[in-house]
Amino acid sequence: MTQTTLLRGGWIITMVPGSEPARGDVLIRDSLIAAVGRVDPPPGAEVVDATDRIILPGLVDSHRHLWQSSLRILACDWTLGQYFARMRGQFGGLFRPEDIFAGTLLGAVEALDAGITTVVDWSHNLNTPAHADAAWAALQEGGGRAVFAYGATNDQALRNDVSAHTRDVARLRTEVAGDAAARVTLAMAVRGPEFTTIDNCEADWGLARELGVPMTVHVGGGLRGAQGGIRALSERGLLGPDTTYVHCNMLSDAELELIASSGGRASVSPEVEANMGHGPPATARLRSRGIPTGISADVCTNVGGDLFGAMRVAIALQRGADHAAALTRGETLEVVSMTARDVLAMATVDGARAIGLEDRIGTLEVGKQADLLLLRTDLPNLAPVNDPIGAVVHAAGTHNVDTVYVAGRLVKRAGQFVDLDLPSVLRRAESSRDYLLAAATDR
């Protein structure tokens, strides 16, 4: 039986290039967007009053380590070096499959709560196949759209290991992840030349292409990111449009040109990068070369798990750097170098492009998946609405996220989850946290 819902009378931000926010309606039919604009209610449709709401595409987090969510904010004062020494060296090997499940589920739920309907789960603590199965099961239970990026074991991530990526990813591809149109799909989180040998990179890239799954790779983060890794990949003929390059801070302009010419994509994590010391933000350098660039929260051990904060940090860092450069030249900028629409695109349409899902999500268009959120504007931080896009980027917070749909399925309404036992999710995460902290203390 067809399920039809009409969201009526809201401020609509479609994020279709060239479009402007306007009052109107969005019709959802089953899992798809059926109409956008002025729509008469079809017979039998549920009509939702969106008068005091902004309706926009579900946000896209293009790179997040969900497995760490139970250790929330533990690393808030850690540098990048301390993170590797402590999170990987102290905690990573302690994670049981049930800890991976608890952290991944909590992170997936946290994302939905913040209006993030799609997340790339960069899962790089998969010490056994059971760990991978636990992460996959948590994404299924979480209810959001996800790309499960099957990553390394803790030992592989801890040092420059020479072992190849486990072929267990092939098992998962065959058993449960064969449908590229499913809500949860598969990718490979490959280590790249900053974490392993170039011969090993060639093998890992070959495995991903053999399986027909996209890749995501950390590059350009900190001093190890300034050693020509992209050039090395290019010399082996490995760069391509099936790869998302994460961070990119310390890459040279020539390396960014290699990514652009190969059709590659990118993801930045401005809040984490600034806090931990990855290097100057690469946002403008990526975007100026036409590289589709998404945005992410990265690790909730260090920052909050919403994209409102990430967007604000991204735009402030870029504008600040550009203002400072102009003042150093004895000039002032006549217009801002990055607009609110630019950074919202990174969290929606460009984020979808950055992970290869632009045909399905990222904009409110007929035929696309009905992944969207409604933000309350009848609260002091958004009322009155004068610039809907500016309101989302510069003023909105998770408390404004009123309603969330994923593939047309209602997962949050009136600020509350639908069909989710949140206390159970929290108890599981707290139990895992208690175990991990105690086990780390005993080592």
TrEMBL record:
Keyword annotations of the record: Hydrolase
Species this protein is from: Nocardioides humilatus
Protein name from the UniProt record: Amidohydrolase family protein
Keyword Lipoprotein applies: no
Domain Amidohydrolase-related, first and last residues per copy: 54-411
GO MF annotation: an example: hydrolase activity, acting on carbon-nitrogen (but not peptide) bonds
